[in-house]
Amino acid sequence: MTRPGIEKDTRRYPKRPIVGVGALIFRRDRVLMAQRGHQPRKGAWSLPGGAVEVGESLDAAIRREVREETGLVVKPVKVFEVFERILRDTAGAPEYHYVLIDYICRVTGGALRAGDDASRVEWVRLRDLPELEITEGTLDVIERAFNER
User: Fold this and answer.
1) 69 and which of 73, 82, 103, 118 could share a cystine (Cβ 3.0–4.6 Å)?
2) pLDDT for 28-64, tens place per residue?
């Protein structure tokens, strides 16, 4: 719901970049991946996460997004990387623009299940990641975070 006099931002063709969070969650030689259930990139695999809500801290956002998408309760351990993703339409206009903050997280509870805008969630072996349709740049981030953790 928008406040009177405040125009609602949309994710597609936004007026300004949208801040998002992503979770790098490892278990032995696997990383938790979510298959996107909505656009942009519906059907592609990515890290669990999503947009930060107005008035929400980054810590609260990563905890909420992971819980909504995967059913897991996590503790953010550290910020791993901040980057941006700009997807342009055929005319070159920015159709989607995100500033993304990826956190290394540790599971503290919950039960794995797909929810919210994820159609599937799975623990994927790092060696199997190249077989998945993964959002651009995600494989590199996962490999670097796995080696640094």
Assistant:
1) 118
2) 999 999 998 887 678 999 999 999 999 999 999 999 9
Q: For residue 117, which of 68, 58, 61, 84 has the smallest C-alpha distance?
A: 68
3-state SS track over 57-122:
CHHHHHHHHHHHHHCEEEEEEEEEEEEEEEEECCCCCEEEEEEEEEEEEEEEEECCCCCCCEEEEE
pTM more than 0.85: yes
Q: CA angle 100-106-112, nearest 5°?
A: 90
> Do the Cβ atoms of 94 and 88 come closer than 8 Å?
yes
Q: Catalogue all structural domains in the chain, each as residue range(s) with its CATH number.
A: 18-148 (3.90.79.10)
Lookup result for tokens 């669990």 = 48
Structure tokens at 38: 């909505």
Say if residues 62 and 105 touch (Cβ distance below 8 Å).
Answer: yes
The answer to whether 133 touches 45, Cβ cutoff 8 Å, is yes
The 10s digit of each residue's pLDDT in 3-36 is 444 455 678 899 999 999 999 999 999 999 999 8
